[in-house]
Amino acid sequence: MSLKSIDLGDGLHVSPQGFGGMALTAVYGGADPDTALATLEHALDLGVTFVDTADVYGNGTNEELIARLLAGRRDEVQIATKFGVSGNIRTGEKEVRGDAAYVRACIDASLTRLGTDVVDLYYMHRIDTRVEIEETVGAMAELVAAGKVRHLGLSEVTATELRRAHAVHPIAAVQSEWSIWSRDVEAHVVPTAAELGVGFVAYSPLGRGFLAGAATADLPAGDMRHTFPRFDADNQQANQVVVDTVRAVAARLDVTPAQVALAWVYEQGRRAGLPVVPIPGTRRAQRVDENVAALAVSLDAEALAALDAVSDAVAGARSADPTWVSSGRE
């Protein structure tokens, strides 16, 4: 199957929906590598060719898993990976580093784990506030010149940081959380990206499963969602109104809640005037089918009004550390 590709930014053509690889490692509980690979293969068969990972996911094991996909199908995939965060993101024990020497070391390690000689999109995962962004992006630009990277991206940057980075080297994409219950990027980052011709990659478009109606009241031990304020028991209860609204819209349109959440992200991109590629993650092949079907879902004015209004009812910050996301530094 083939999905019509889009120009995300800087001439980077990707599938209109990507695959978030983080879910295939043990951030939301255990994950079986063979099942994960089968899910990736199924996504690629459906035309989902834009695959997202990072060196910190599973401490490199996520990249090694995706290497198994690339081994026989590299020419079909636009692979995106990230550097800049080390430690354990599942428990919140992490640090950020963006100096030039670290950038150079990280790409070589990622290329080895991925079993490829070039990455299509290389992201700075988080900003190292101790290092000027010009130094970090300058080192990333050297990787493009060396043929190790094709395009550059930034994750969770402010509008000002994006402008400074883009002045050093064209940025193809900004990746940040964007969904019905995470709209802070619309204030500054989204308009700046649209102005500069930078595409937007929306992670957690399903609210880490919450917007899709996934049961999260009793999260398993080790599940990364324990570290997010929105998944506190009181906040989950308050946020049930968001889920109820999504479900009501889905029932009226005869689609699933996940499809409503994804269709909303696509509509926001159209309203903002920039290409948006959500990267939902899942371990199950049938969920990939459901997510891809969202490309054909159209939300009417009544649905958009209901979903836009409920965003104001969200309880809890999207990160326990305000500086970890762009809005905390704006």
From TrEMBL:
Record carries keyword Oxidoreductase: yes
Keyword Plastid attributed: no
GO MF term set: oxidoreductase activity
Matches recorded under Pfam families: Aldo_ket_red
Domain NADP-dependent oxidoreductase: 18-311
GO cellular component: cytoplasm
Keywords, ordered alphabetically: Oxidoreductase
InterPro entries the record matches: AKR (IPR020471), Aldo-Keto_reductase (IPR050791), NAD(P)_OxRdtase_dom_sf (IPR036812), NADP_OxRdtase_dom (IPR023210)
Record's protein name: Aldo/keto reductase
